[in-house]
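A quick aside before the break. I want you to see a complete sequence-to-structure record at least once, exactly as it would be stored in a machine-readable document. Don't worry about memorizing anything.
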Amino acid sequence: MALQGPEELGEQLEEPEDLDDQDASSISPAEEITLPSGLGGDDEPEEALLLPWDRFSAWLHCICVVGFDLELGQAVEVRGPTRKCPSCLGDTQFCFRFRQGSNRKQSLSCFLENTDRDAPPCLKRELGHYYGYVYFRQVRDKSLKRGYFQKSLVLVSKLPYVTFFHSLLKIMAPEYFEKQEPCLEAACNDIDRWPTPHPGRILTLPIMGMVIKIRIPTCYDKPGTSQLVQSAQVSIVLPTIHEVDLFRCFHPVFFHIQMLWELVLLGEALVVMAPSPAESSDTVLALVSCISPLRYCSDFRPYFTIHDSEFKEYTTRTQAPPSVILGVTNPFFAKTLQHWPHIIRIGDMKQAGEMAKQMKVKKLKNLKTLDSKPGVYTACKPYLNKDEEIIKQLQKGVQQKRPSAAQNAILRRYFLELTQSFIIPLERYVASLMPLQKSICPWKSPPQLHPFIQQDFMKTLEKAGPQLTSRLKGDWIGLYRNFLKSPNFDGWFRTRRREMIHKLEALHLEALCEEDLQQRVQKHSEVETVDLVLKLKDKLSQAEKEHLPVRPGTLAKLQEHIEAVILSLPEDLQGILHKPSTP
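That is the input. The structure line, written in tokens, reads:
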């Protein structure tokens, strides 16, 4: 009997609800707990108030064991507090991503908002999707009817910490395959004692007799830096929790890295055809990260199969392909997705010391099967001229046997500087949409932001465009024009607009705090004073909820002003106004 291929195994976790239908034993509660209002801030004392399994739930949704049954196919054997298995002997790791069911509640929502607030855009937890991190083992076993032992340990999480979870699986999975369920129970208990994943803190995480040390980056960190140091008492120190090796992933097609950056930046429909789930998922994650610090705002599937619930939606020919990056291994996709505008064919990833052959961009009609030669198949013409310097630098590194980590750092820095050169003119223009601070009046609503006008922005590029920071020539105007139509611009601008509105609200609050409220209420009736107090209490509550960027002490000062005004009112009104407002 033929070996089970990657498309036929482990398609159990299309939605979290699927797991509930399995006859699976439970390791730890997977029920989702919502914290009471106001619980779960930044401080460790508040973390001490968390309920059992809350800490576990801050890191993982659940742990699954997916085995292969000769009669039933793949089956979830164990689910704690899945999907696909590659057709290769030994151990392999990869990840996939899938939509959250519409009837699923957000667990620990108040607490996780606080821990997520300072994370960089690419590391904020997913709202509508889960990640599945997989450790798959396939070994010969003559005692089994099929002749092979095939099983996966899967960690399901909202967190995009791919490097961290793969490192965690390297500790957990071998132990599980040797000792079975009791060691998973111990691992779940270890994880439930971890501190919550708060950006900026150095976290020491004990797991199954070992210790992992990590630091979750913040949005304030300088890109490309790490603040972790080696420690003799720590088993594993991870310098990054999420970054994949860009050079290894792009090595087969690194002559086209600039074109790929453009395609990802513009949110183009893109499919990666790879020989294994590991290479598929790593390449998709590398593509998504190449526009950092911009967040990729479209859908992406590191490992996509014919069993995914979006298969028909993403492969239909009745409409244009959606803005999504798919990673696939099934040869069936070579035909099903041949109408897609951009296809990357990845061969076996070469070692860092091997030279990649220079390949021309190929026409889509030449892509017949998954066995077609590696390369980039597209009719797209890049907007920017090719940067020959980065190609020569990487080639020289290969010839001189430069370490892979150094090659990766060079490529990551190149992408970072390219993205920053592109985004700085947008940041400069959007900053000009902010009203002047002198226009903020404490007794009027905060002023509105000026609208984003595409023509006005385009005019700024002549004197303050990317040519100030980038050596690249080409059709920058055309690139910007298409970017402004993309989901990535929409997501970026929504975030910047929200940040600026919050800044205006903060400045308005600070202006209020400088006013003499006592003197003002003396000129107004009791009804007007009560109305003022209610509005101020509402603004204070909103400021605390949205974590407005006010100066230290501003909210406490405003609370003092409110208390002083309340005490100036008759006792019956004081009692009413001191009652907590109902939600």
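Two observations worth writing down. Residues 1-45, 82-86 have pLDDT under 50 and may be disordered. The chain is about 40% helix and 15% strand. We'll return to this after the break.
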